Amino acid sequence: MRIIPAIDIIDGKCVRLTQGDYDQQTTYESNPVDVAQAFEDMGFEYLHVVDLDGAKSGKPQNLQVLKQICSQTSLKVDFGGGIRSEDQLYTVFDCGVQQVNVGSFAVKNPAAFVGWLSKFGGERLILSADVRERNIAISGWQENSNFSLLPFVTQMVDQGLKYLVCTDIAKDGMLLGPSVDLYSELTLAFEGLKVVASGGVANQSDIENLVETGVDGVIIGKAIYEKTIDPKKLLNNVG
Question: For residue 47, what are the CA distances in angstroms to 41, 97, 98, 220?
Answer without folding.
Answer: 13, 10, 10, 10
